[in-house]
Write a structure and sequence with these properties.
The chain is an alpha/beta fold. The chain is 32% helix and 12% strand.
């Protein structure tokens, strides 16, 4: 795999600073039951990096001591971590809104038979990746059989009330382009998804989020192999919108890796661009009240991925 950071370090992206911290995004490890082409984490079934109990306890203490509004759990497949449920239970008891970034197929894995019920019991918002409503497109990106497995998982979530109006159980789908281009308008694509998935499979969901493919890790390496990295970066820079700087997710979020170290965002985590003090990585335990206020955010050329066109974040487009 090609390293992408050398292609991104020299940048003319504008400097930005942090606002109030609201969201703690935690990567519980890179173990996943899938290996997707677009995956910026390079996750897969053979990855060994998984958060240990002591680090989960560090996170629980941080949630207790700080005014965190959202806990955003990601991976890999976060549900495969042994301490996933311990963390969810603790955050739920504190009244924190919890998000599980679920690949859907993990709900059919051995040992995960009651995971959907667990998520519903703890009012966890499910953000599920479904890069298209057409079977052939999804399977070409994520593997044979993934689409039908994903549809079956959504049906099981619908039965529990997920995606149904007034249920209090939110199911949001995440779209990312299959190729090296920007996502279409989120609002229109959401209407298409809802119509097609309802008509074809009888399933429902709340919102569709569009996410720009980041030129890092597996996707970035593929671009380099095909000689299209510079072309894709030109596309992102040509579509840059300065208005998106005000609402990029890194202003109000920090990303924690499986060892407890702190990053400005999940993408910086994958590029190994951590917060540092005197040349050393900052651990979550070292962050005191006010430490992050107005701190400069670590930037590189991949930041154009979040600010191109309608903008892109873990919560979808930044504007229509």
């Amino acid at each position: 795999m090609h390293a992408t950071l050398p292609y991104l370090q020299q940048t003319d992206f504008p400097a930005i600073k942090r606002d109030q911290l609201e969201t703690l995004q935690v990567n519980l490890g890179y173990l996943c039951n899938q290996s997707c082409l677009h995956c910026h984490v390079n996750a897969g079934p053979t990855r060994k990096e998984n958060m240990e109990k002591s680090t989960v306890e560090d996170i629980i203490r941080f949630l207790h001591d700080n005014n965190i509004k959202k806990l955003d759990l990601t991976g890999g497949a976060p549900e495969l971590n042994l301490w996933f449920r311990k963390l969810v239970k603790a955050a739920y008891s504190m009244g924190i809104h919890i998000i599980d970034r679920c690949n859907l197929t993990v709900l059919h894995e051995a040992g995960q038979e009651d995971t959907a019920d667990f998520l519903a019991q703890h009012k966890v918002e499910v953000v599920a990746s479904l890069p298209c409503y057409l079977e052939e497109n999804v399977d070409s990106q994520r593997g044979d059989g993934v689409f039908q497995s994903s549809i079956a998982a959504i049906k099981s979530l619908n039965i529990l009330g997920y995606g149904l109006q007034g249920s209090g159980l939110e199911l949001n789908l995440m779209y990312n382009p299959i190729g090296a281009h920007l996502p279409p308008a989120q609002c229109q694509l959401e209407q298409d998804y809802k119509r097609e998935l309802k008509q074809r499979y009888g399933i429902v969901f709340n919102n569709l989020y569009t996410l720009t493919n980041m030129p890092i890790k597996r996707f970035g390496s593929t671009l380099i192999s095909k000689g299209r990295f510079d072309e894709y970066m030109h596309l992102l820079k040509e579509a840059y919108q300065s208005a998106n700087l005000h609402t990029v997710m890194c202003r109000s979020l920090i990303s924690i890796d499986w060892q407890g170290y702190v990053y400005d965002c999940d993408f910086n985590q994958m590029l190994e661009l951590p917060l540092t003090e005197q040349g050393k990585k900052v651990h979550l335990n070292e962050i005191s009240d006010g430490y992050l206020n107005q701190r400069n955010i670590m930037i590189a050329d991949h930041c154009y991925g979040c600010t191109a066109g309608q903008g892109s974040s873990c919560g979808g487009a930044l504007h229509e």
